[in-house]
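Task 17 of the worksheet. Students: predict the tertiary structure of the chain below and write it out as structure tokens. Keep your answer in the requested format; marks are given for formatting as well as content.
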Amino acid sequence: QVQLVESGGGLVQTGDSLRLACAISGHTFNRDTVGWFRQAPGEERKVVAVLYWEDGSASYIDAVKGRFSCSRDGDKNTVYLQMMSLKPEDTAVYYCALDPNFLYGANWEEYRYRGQGTQVTVSS
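Model answer:
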């Protein structure tokens, strides 16, 4: 049974940093796509970043380019989202999702496995 568990969220101030982790169990990695999404109150869930497990490459939405970065740890089966220079508009529940296939990655519904989310709140 594949499980994704996010952690690392919290309450921080503008300009602070956080590192989110997505621990993945019950899965053997190959050409997987891992997406990070966020959902702010009253808004739809939207993609933030997509990581391709095989080569570790990642893409980001414009709103977080230069501030957020994705990485993976194969020994720990964990994907990270390092977030720097946080802004109040980054406040949201952050989710990770996994699919064993290559995806363009922006569609939450395409992912086979999804986490439950972790809250990130950035105060001004």
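Marker's comment: Residues 68 and 74 are 20 Å apart (CA to CA). The mean pLDDT is 97.
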